[in-house]
Structures are given as structure tokens and as C-alpha cells.
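mind reviewing both lines:
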Amino acid sequence: MRERTVLLDGLGFAEGPRWHEGRLWFSDMGTGQVRTVDLEGHAEVVLDVPGRPSGLGWLPDGRLLVVSMADRRVLRREHDGTVVEHADLAALASFDCNDMVVDGQGRAWVGNAGFDLSVRPLRVRPAQIVLVTPDGRARVVDDEVVFPNGSVVTPDGTTLVVAETFGQRLTAFTIAADGGLADRRVFADLSGSAPDGICLDAEGAVWVADATGSACLRVREGGEVVTRVDTGRGCFACALGGPDRRLLFLLTADGFQGAAIRRRTAAIEAVAVDVPGAGWP
């Protein structure tokens, strides 16, 4: 692998990276902001999200969707910059919402933790994937995933792959015409790992941020790990972007809460790869 470079550092905790309109968009959960950074490292604050932002995506008309974690909502930024509620998931999600993928039709699939990570001993339990249609209607389309996190949709729009962080696997579903999910299957067993954010490349392989393994893994369907990028500390999300989608962005930090956030340890790193990104996000 080629050498990694730091694009931006001093962040609270960065999540949800998306390459869009020549910039990397991301959520800084530590500061409650959606931000962007270009390839020269110039950063900009797009909007504040008091409920902590996470997953990002866009409707076909260009309006931004943002997960607001603590109040379990999806927000929408209108063309004039105002922010409104797109969908209220409080009655559907069993704990704070997290990542989200939005496809080319504007359909969004939103995960949630399912349980409180700050309570010991951990009481791990399955959570829900909630479908939000472009008009803001929401319903549960799966309730057996264990901490659904990063998600991708294949270029043909027929398959959703979800990282189950505490399930230690990638799980694939067939997407029905109405956005429902069927034909659950294991895309990759990643026992011993904690798959967090993910992104898809043009060969159908998935890059997986391993939150506990200090690495980003390129995994083929079936579970073969073909490439490993060591990050030396927690890698919590990844995205493929740049002009030809051949830059792998790695979102790293010393931790995802407490002192690590207060010390602003999070950073965005980049490394060139050979196979470009594909699908959504």
C-alpha cells in the first residue's frame, strides 16, 4: 500500500465520510457539526447538529440528509439552508441512531446501536434497520442485526450490505422495489473484528473500518481479506473519493468518547488505491 497522508486533524470524532461535489463531507460527532474538507485540507462547517450528527446522504434534488443521533431523527437541509425534520425514528429505533446510506432514488436505510455502550456490563441485543422513503415515511425493514453500522448499496441498486459491529460480520440483503429487505445472507464473517464504517469498490469488494483492530480491511464476498491498511489506532469509518474515486479516506481516533474527544484526537487520512469506488455512498 502507498503512504498515508493526514488531510485534517484536531477533530472531536469524525464519522460518516462521503465524497460529494469535489469535497469530503463528514460528521464531527464530538463538536456536533457537519463539515467538509477538500484535498488541500481546507475545511468548512456546513451546519450544527445539537443532537450529534452521524450518517449523511443526499436526495436526488441535492438536499442534504443528516442523522441526528440522540433524538433519533433524520434532518433535511433545504436549498435555502434551513434545516427541517425529514423523519422521526424515535418510535422505531431502540437506541441512538448512527450511520445511514442513501441511494440514487433518495431512499435511506438508517441503523442504531440497539443498546447503551456506556452501561456495564454490556447488554448486547439486536437492533433495527429503518427505511426512510424520499417523502419522509419510515418503517422497520429488519430487526435482527446486531449494532448495524456502516452500509452500502451496490451500483445496480439491488443489494444492501450492512456492517454489524457487534455481530462481527457484513450482512447482505436483496432490496425490494419498495425498499424492503429480503434474502438475508452473510457477505463476510469477520470474527475478531468490529466492522464500523464501510465503502464499496468497483470489483465488489468492501473496505471495512475495523474499530478495534486499528486497520482498514478490503474484503471480498465470502470473507477473504485481500488488503490490510494498518492505522496504528482506531479506524472508525472509510470512504472512497477524489476525482476518480481512487482515494481511500480513513477516519481515525484514539477513541470515540470521553478524553479522546476532549483532546481532539480524531483525524482524516488518505491513501491512494487501485480500484475505484462504486455504488452508494
Helices lie at 259-262.
